[in-house]
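WARN retry 2 of 3 for item q-0093 after timeout on previous attempt; input resubmitted unchanged.
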Amino acid sequence: MQQLDIIIKNPTGLHARPAKEFVNIAKGFKSNIRVYHGEKMANAKSLISLLTLGVRSGNQIKIEVEGEDEDQALQALESAVLSGLGEEEIIKQISQKSPTIERATTSDQVKPDHTEVEIILKNQIRGIAGAPGIAIGPVYHLQRTEIKVEETFAGESKEKNQLQSAIETAKGQLKQLHKKMLDQKASGEAAIFDVHIELLDDFELLDSVLEKINQEQSAAFAWQSTIEERAKLVASLDDPLLAARAADLHDVGYRVLRILVGADNQAPEFPDHPVIILAEDLSPSDTVTLDRDKVLGFCTAKGGPTAHTAIIARALGLPAIVSAGEKIISLEDSTQVILNGYTGILSIKPNQPEIKEAVRMQEEDKDFRLQVRAESGKPAITIDGHRVEIAANIGGIEDAHQALASGAEAVGLLRTEFLFLERINPPSEDEQFEVYRDIAQAMQNKPVIVRTLDVGGDKPLPYIQMEQETNPFLGERGIRLCLNRPKLLREQLRAILRAKEHGPLRIMLPMVSDISEWLATKEIVTEIENEMGVSGVEMGIMIEVPSAALMADIFAEHVDFFSVGTNDLTQYTLAMDRMHPLLAGKSDGLHPAVLKLIDFTIKAAHKSGKWVGVCGELGSDPQAIPILVGLGVDELSVTVPAIPMVKAQVRELSLTKTQQLAQAALKCASAKEVRQLTQP
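OK item q-0093 returned
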């Protein structure tokens, strides 16, 4: 028997998706695998069992493995936990969908106190912004049809066959919902329904239902009672995010139950006119199947901005307010309201001036979005003639095609980690070359900045031997890791230099903190260029570490460009994990300390005739863009969907006014003060 104590560092603990990843890995081994947390024990091959442990971020678990492949199983699980169990990229996708909402509500999302949230200001109820947008119309209470299960038993074999048939039908429906989200280019949100399918494959859940059928309970009765038991257990966990997964159990359980009792085709009835939905809460399935011709938006009494329902609403562009309190339930159907998904305010029985203003905002927003898309190919030039390059952050060839179609003028950050992760051996030089070549060609001679491998510490690779680190964020990662493994670095650099024949590729080094790291890498590049008979590749570094920002004047004498990674720069400057559930709201890139480091970097670069980009989330924050432009940033590299809107915002700015705004921001005492400066 093998054992391992390990810390779960996922920002939200072992909730549905990382737990699903853990279970899938465990299922790949024959050994018995158990997970202990405190006095609780779970079967590692059961998703529901694992969820009931209630493991939070920072909690320690014990993995116990016993069987013929115990060594391999323990090693695989350890590597997966250290790699984040597939969590990091999903969180990035969600935050990139609506960074402003996530930042604004983080401090409230743990456990909303409805005595405070349920604020009535004349005709207003204040909840939490769930998804941006404005909806105007009558409310309609959406209630699930209550299913009454009669206790009839048709025989063990027949009941078991009915159960299996219902589960398979439910899986087919979930696969269709998964496809619908993929069609919306919402792969992260689509993963929600992967979790639901996994719940239906949970052997402990199924064993419990089958045992009740063996005791002569009907499939429907056995299924309903088992789901209720498991959901209550998960809901009782002392962690709001994990407890919220009870909603997923109820959702998938209700789906199967409707099929079992023949109510699967009974869709909710809606009025013959568009409405704003009011509900205690909505399930992910409810949300994704809402008819956009009939539903203008929704407001729920419960839920939160990190719940799957809110995530899906943002992906679908459906305005939403969550956690508005029980007061909304007392509103009568057909009551006219204005739902503001930007502020989280539901205005009840608005007067004509309020309606007129909301309509104006709606039309303005709609026209602006259409115009933005139509003009995405135009450059981003301020009203007084200052141009800012708008580039794309990408992670693969498909992203490159979409970036070009969205108006990207360059690739400001190509994350190469996708080539190295989720495999047992590193990619070969030829494999890397083909990908870099294809991306260069897809961008049609526009510049592409290729960031060298940025893993290690918190993102280890299974084929690289590394010591376990007490503080991986301050450990061997980025360029530090690559310089310690020169073969890995040389192969990547050779692949980039070979692909440079097919487009203007540039090389960028991550996590540089000392000039020696730059000089050592530059020497290797020069050696390879001499070997290959090529020259002239542009090279730069990411400014992610305060030491690099403070030494920008020294670095500027050597590099061709800087790119500010505001996510890590903020994290290291403020000593706050930007994914920490309690601190994320305070980890704000508009903190004056971070802005001063960016300002120093830009001044040092421009003095040496070098340019500066920003490739972190701050680059697409509407409140940050004027300040960054005013500080003198030359390039904003953002997520692909944000490109048209960022370009449009820059076109409305005055460089002179943004410079004044930036100087005022540098004199502020807090990020809150900076954000107040940018409010109209």
